[in-house]
């Protein structure tokens, strides 16, 4: 985008999608945490580099939200019996909550660049007194440390 916009004198906005794992990681999430840390740092670096040309870069970090593809144990660990799960907001969002309402703001906010917007109902701020039980990733996947996926 910048390769074409800068010589043409055009401005624009880039919105990256981040992940709360960039600062916390977790079992089986090394690949996601590393990739999203890169996305976040790319957001910061390019925002500074391309700001003089009117190109803004921000990132949106959606938190956990229940969906139909979640394994039952992941759903239970995050949502629990209350329906609001372990979120301080006592409710869950959906893709419209974080995509439909926040993307347009970030795309058109002309003075915002180099920002990471976390939209996740305060979960990262309030670590519950009883975190979900730790299960090694190999155990979750049902195989030993050196067994290939079948």
Q: Any low-confidence stretches, pLDDT <50, length ≥5?
A: none
Strand order in the largest sheet: 1-2-3
Q: Count helical runs.
A: 6
Mean pLDDT: 76
The global form is globular
Cα gyration radius (Å): 19 Å
Strand content: 5-15%
Structural class: alpha/beta
Q: Could you give the count of β-strands?
A: 3
Features:
single chain, 150 residues, alpha/beta, 3-stranded parallel sheet, 6 helices, 35% helix, 12% strand
Overview of this protein structure:
The protein has 150 residues and is of the alpha/beta class. 35% of the residues lie in helices and 12% in strands. It contains 6 helices and 3 strands. The chain has helices at 2-8, 30-50, 72-79, 95-100, 103-108, 137-141, and strands spanning 12-17, 55-62, 116-119. It has a 3-stranded parallel sheet with strand order 1-2-3. It is globular and about 55 Å long.
Kindly summarize this structure in a few lines:
Helix content is 35%, strand content 12%. With 150 residues, it is an alpha/beta fold.
Sequence-ordered SSE layout with sheet pairings:
Blueprint: H1 2-8, E1 12-17, H2 30-50, E2 55-62, H3 72-79, H4 95-100, H5 103-108, E3 116-119, H6 137-141
Parallel strand pairs: 1-2, 2-3
